Amino acid sequence: MVPVLRGGWLAMGVMAVLSCLGVALPGGGAPWAGFSNDTHDIALLVPLGIVGFAASRGRDLAACAGAALAVIGGPVLSCIGAGWVLIARVPHDDMPRMDVRQAPDLIALLLMVAVLVFPAHAGWLLPGLCWLATRGLLGLSFSPRVSPRGLRSFHMADIAAMVAAMALWGRLPAGGMVADMRWGGVLIVAGCLLYMTASWRALCAGDGRRVMTGLLGGTGALVIVLAGLGLLARADDLPAMATCASRTFMLVVGTLLTWMFMARAMDAMEREAGALVLCRLGGLGVLMPRLSALFSIGLLAESGLPPLLGFSIIWMLLHLLAAMPRGGGLGADLPLLLALLALGVGWAVRMLALVRIVAVMLCGRPRTPRGAGASDPSGWEMATLLLAVLPVLCASIWPGYWLGLVAGHGPGGMTWPLVDNVALASPDGAALLHPARLCLLVALVGGVVVVLRRMACPTPARQVAGWRQGAPPVPPWMVFGDPLTQVGPGNPARMLLDMVVMPAMRRRCLRDYVRLRRRMGRSWPLLARYVDDLRPGGVMASAPVVMAMACMAALIFIAWHG
Fold this sequence. Notes:
The chain is mainly α and 562 residues long. Helices cover 68% and strands 1% of the residues.
């Protein structure tokens, strides 16, 4: 049954591609009433068909079915499909608690149905309801705390949930335009904060799948930021900015191809090396060199480093934020600065989480016998992974072709291969990004480095990552083999602190601080007893009064010496 369903999803993806190319399908795009025929919705079916074809679990296929209903359905059917995806993602052991955990999202979906059916009465509530209804689909939370309940393992069903959430956010223009200006700013700031917290949760996660779940949540936060930018552009009548926001949204849709490949690669790694717990992994870069190289391409595409798709999205997003309408003065620029600060911090933390994944999983040495016996998958499975990474590379190197595909054309269509401008343009048209040129430059420099390394360091006849019982001392050139540098989110900060302050000096300062605390702890009761003897009649000022007097004294001092 599962192979038949996977073949059906592949056929649906092919039909979606043909529809985007302008080929007339039998029955038209939406033969039944109540189904959507929008170009952006059909474009969402392209990655969803590939995800359904690559899925192997029944739960993932059920989530894909709900996501398809959310994409092509009308206002009522789309919310029903989103609720279907919410229920399908819950594991069997969590079913008794599902009604409590998913109740707010399901209630928000019910209210969203009413608002979408009657937008004239409460259309201004649509952005807030959409955020409440999709936070479970996108895995978003303002809390930086990581727990197994709040951060599930990454599977194909999470990508289907992302597709359903994107379909719901695409229905925002159905609401009234009264509160678009206010909602736009709120969504931008909230999306940047969610991006930062999702990146932090990815950094704190203890296994590879939950790290990917946190990173996928950061991609979902970018969807909210782009929705806010689109609302601002439509409210201020800025067609160039609205078009640029729509094109960036389609680039985020292209990242779903990357996530599909990452899910397949992690399935292959888990079959070979066991559970992807970070404190038990290592050495996969030597044991599985071909799969590790493909996995590194996926990580680079999601990291935001040039020249792949993540960098193109960040580049477009920064230009969109710079083109936001705002007044003069620091007060008008403060929300933009805060949004850029949160986005920059989130990007840096995201990069640190990806560096941690590479350092732990691919570098170092294996820690279990099963990990030491891992090897590259067989020929057919390796060929499927190679085919899965090809769309990622094509959409990253030539994003103009991807945008031409998903933009849709009329019946005279099939003109997308003739897209003249394959570069990405900023909203004002003053800046252009050519990812293909960056890829050519990186390939040229990388080739030179590989040649020089081969000339200087010949490869041994058999390269292995040794695993020995008893955890031998770590060589100085293999710092990520030390278990203490791999566990917990505080270790990267400790490593940076070691670069700034010498460990001996830090230990001495810590001993002095502890000694001072002990002396203060001994002298504090004596001081309290002395003050209690001095107060007249036992009257003592309260803590708020003392704090207010201290603040007044500080202000007087500053004014006197100003």
